[in-house]
Amino acid sequence: MNKLTKGAIASAAGIVLLMGGAGTLASWNASATAGASQTITAGQLSVVSAGAGAWKNSLGATVTPSSYKVVPGDTLTYTQTFNVTASGDNLYFTVAASSGALSNATGAANAALLSQLTNAASYSVTGNGIVQATSPNTYKVGAGTTASTIVVSMTIAFPYGTTVDNSAQLGAVTLGTGAVTLTQTATA
Asked: Nearest 5°: phi and psi at 122?
């Protein structure tokens, strides 16, 4: 084959390739609407104080801690109610209550009183639609918006002992604020 023939064949092949790339291929396409337009609304988890709480002593009398003189054997309890608003069709949350930290200024009597006091916090949940889930301290909300209450109690105890220890007399401590915390969890 001569060079001229080979060149003509190569040129013809190149033209065919170029024309094939420039041509159109048939294809089909179709679409349809899926679903209808919807509005999605987020739920809510909130807790607010239902009002001021009250301190009571071991005998159930209402007291003002700043003027009350605590003695061994006394227990002071602060109780406060909180309103909970919870909505969400798959809402799980935990509840935690913490008592305020006890602290003192410098001084031997203050340190002695601080070392003899104990503090703790507890809570109870009441209301419609909020139920205990399978995990401890975990709750589930039914469908819709549910209003419930959480009652938090903080207790400071000055235990009575059989050993005489006068070192805490006239001591003073400060109790910080406590808290109730609701935290969403993934499941029960």
From this structure: -145, 170
Closest CA to 97 of 182, 183, 179, 175: 179
- Mean pLDDT across 119-136: 81
The Cα–Cα gap between 152 and 11 comes to 92
Cα distances from 67 to residues 70, 73, 155, 169, 171, in angstroms, run 9, 18, 17, 15, 13
User: 181 - beta bridge partners?
Assistant: 96
Which residues, in sequence order, are CB contacts of 126 under 8 Å at separation 6+? 148, 149, 150, 151
Residues 6+ apart with CB under 8 A from 23: none
Give yes or no for residue 139 having a pLDDT over 90. Answer: no
Cα separation, 52 vs 54, whole angstroms: 7
Q: What is the pTM of this model?
A: 0.73
